[in-house]
Amino acid sequence: MSNDETKKEEDGIKSIADALKAGGALLNVACPICNYPLIKVDEKIYCKICNQEVYIYRDESELPKEYKQALKQKPKISSEETEVEKTIKGKIEDLRKKLEKAVDPDEIGKLSEAIGKLNQTLKRMKEE
Fold this sequence. Notes:
Layout: H1 3-21, E1 25-30, E2 37-41, E3 44-47, E4 52-54, H2 65-72, H3 83-101, H4 105-127
Antiparallel strand pairs: 1-2, 2-3, 3-4
């Protein structure tokens, strides 16, 4: 952990202690970002480590309209090829070269099967 992160964490813990002394209540719910306990002060819930207010909803029906809409939107997937995709394509090409030189039927079968599985993996990644 860097000195800046340690300082932020120490300041956050001191802030939790100060909020508790001032009448805040420590909750048995953790911050979704830093995983430290949340604190309730004057009907608002805060993460003193992240230094931000946190909203807790029982289920999706309680969410504000704009949050519901955001959840329904499909995430934008980058059109750029990921490093994993590049690696898989490189492995397919390596196997293809071996397959081109192979004469043993067992080796041809294994190479073909491996290429097929890698192609399936690529296809699934693109569908997600």
